[in-house]
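## Example record

The block below lists the input lines for one assembly entry, exactly as stored, with component labels intact.
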Amino acid sequence: MNPEELVLSNLKRVMDPELNINVVDLGLIYDIDFSGDGKAVITMTLTTPGCPLHDSIISGVKYCIEDLKQFSAVEVNLVWEPAWTPARMTPEANQLLRG
Amino acid sequence: MLGNTKNETNIKLPFSFILFSLPCLIGSMALILFQGDSIINSQFRVPAIWSAAHLFILGWALMTAMGAMYQLVPVAFLTPIWNERFGFIQFAVTAFGILFFAHSLFHNPESALVPGLITLTGILMFLLQMFMTLRKQAKPNVLTLFVGTALFSLLTAILLGIIMVFSMKTGFISDYYQAVFKSHILLGTAGWFTLLIFGFSYKMVPMFSLSHGYSMKPAKYVFTFYAAGLSAAVISFFTEKNSLLTIALMFLAGGFAFFTWHMLQILKRRVKKKLDYSFRFALLAIPAGLAIHLGAFLCSLTGSFESTIGYLAFAYLLLWVALSIMGYLFKIIPFLWWTWKYSKEIGKRNVPSLKEMMNDKASIPVLSAFILGILSMTVSIANEHMVMFLSGQILTVGASLVFCYLIISVIKK
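Predicted structure tokens for the full assembly:
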């Protein structure tokens, strides 16, 4: 498993408690970058800028990477551009929401 | 990057307001139960009804709205609460003031000035808190306009209320007492609650339905129409021009109709096809509010506004304001408790979803019984039917009791 796959697999533990779908399948993770000093940089968004679960989801993402021994540090960049759209969801997540 | 995302409020603050509000809801509903004779005869200016109305509006609806705002403003406007410690002091002052005020209105309305001033102090502290919080918002938007105007309406309504108590005691501006009274009611209900619900609906409806790609442009027209209606109505009260009041009611109904249409447009763009039951009740309050607005306009047009405003206002407060708040509380309370208990656990272990925190299906019988009770009371006021009033109010008290139980039972999860 390459580092990106490892991170994505671990981030699937972070569920959006309102939708009960993980942040990866929701398409909230925009980019994963690794710096030379063992730091993982996650660029992500939320489904809406005023999401009340803002802090909880971000701290969950941070914890899930810190939990991996391969990385010495983690930085989470929360961005609103480009805005999240439903098109970013996996077919499985889409199916769950659309019933 | 992570540091500037810390917008969550200490959960004890919104919870204090919401838990305080629950006995006020039951108390106000129980008080109304024993005032059937006066209510069905449209005699609303009775001390016990004043007390029940203020316990309901201030003790339940306002305290719940304040609690919800302490939670929602930081996340919706992306700015932390200005001063949480000040928030707890504000809670204590307002809670004491409201209970003292309701007690004074019941026993001796002429002594309500001091408790009214204490309540005013609490509300002014809340307004200061919100002003200091919102001014830090990096990019004000149309939501800021709705919420800001709602807060301004609340301030004006409270000041007018204090003028009324002062006028009763001293005869100050007694010639304008009726105009002040009507403006107080209008700004406290349509100005404060409706604009606040409009504003937060623009945040909560897309959030709970996962709607995307809709236009926010109609919100400007909603605001313009509704604010114009409010201003024209206040002017009509002071100038005693019925034709202007009819025009004002047309603008208010127009603004509400625009809002209803806009909400439909937003919901058409939703990803989540099966909406939660409690959320559907909050949405059901919108057509109810629209029907009441249209009813008020038509009554004014036919010259029967004065004789129907009592039960229209009653239905407005309960079927629009209360139903919206109750529907949204089914969503807000589980979120608050979840944040308190599981926020730090996300990603570390399996945590329950928000749906598992509260029995959403229970909202169907509880809120249906509440609606049925209110409808039956509204009809009983129109028909002066005592048995229908009592059965309707018993149903409403029962539904309120179960509602409060469901809210409190979340704490066990």
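Chain A has one domain: 3-86. Strands of chain A lie at 15-16, 21-22, 29-34, 39-44, 73-78.
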